[in-house]
Specification:
Largest sheet: 3 strands, antiparallel
GO molecular function: adenyl-nucleotide exchange factor activity; protein homodimerization activity; protein-folding chaperone binding
Shape: elongated
Protein name: Co-chaperone GrpE
Number of domains: 2
Pfam families: GrpE
Number of strands: 6
InterPro entries: GrpE, GrpE_head
Structural class: alpha+beta
Keywords: Chaperone, Coiled coil
Length: 151
């Protein structure tokens, strides 16, 4: 075999190796995207369950203390503990509630459901969080739903 034939064969191996490397990288990226989407679907379902617990806990807290029995207080504690466990489970996967420093709106992190005037707050400051948002690193799992100030 002459030098040119050896160089061509070597070049062909490098090209084939490069193609295989690209193919494997694409397969890995596809698998990672699929895994992330599965985690996101799971997280959204868990977050919706947490929302339901929050509503139930809030309704229970708004009831008159006189109406509360020992059993109702025990049930409320159970709901609160379930909520904490669900949040810890999300945290294990790096999914955490979105925090808005100084209650300032970050548009990509929140969906504005409405606005209200307020003398005590600046424009676009968050007055209320209707539903909390969640993030994993820099990826938004669910936007928060908020009411902001509009003067």
């Amino acid at each position: 075999m002459d030098k040119a034939a050896i160089e061509k064969e070597l070049n062909d191996y490098f090209v084939a190796f490069g193609r295989k490397e690209i193919q494997l990288k694409n397969q890995i990226e596809k698998a990672e995207r699929a895994q992330y989407e599965q985690l996101k679907d799971f997280a959204v379902g868990l977050i919706e369950m947490i929302d339901g617990l929050d509503r139930k806990i809030e309704r229970q807290n708004n009831k008159e203390e006189e109406e509360e029995s020992k059993e109702a207080r025990k049930a409320l504690k159970t709901l609160i503990n379930m909520r904490k466990k669900m949040l810890r489970l999300l945290d294990r996967f790096g999914i955490r509630p979105i925090v808005f420093p100084d209650n300032q709106l970050i548009e990509s992190y929140a969906k504005v459901l409405g606005s209200e005037p307020s003398r005590d707050h600046q424009d676009r400051e968050i007055l209320r969080i209707i539903l909390p948002g969640y993030m994993q690193a820099s990826q938004i799992i669910r936007q928060a739903e908020v009411i902001v100030v509009k003067n």
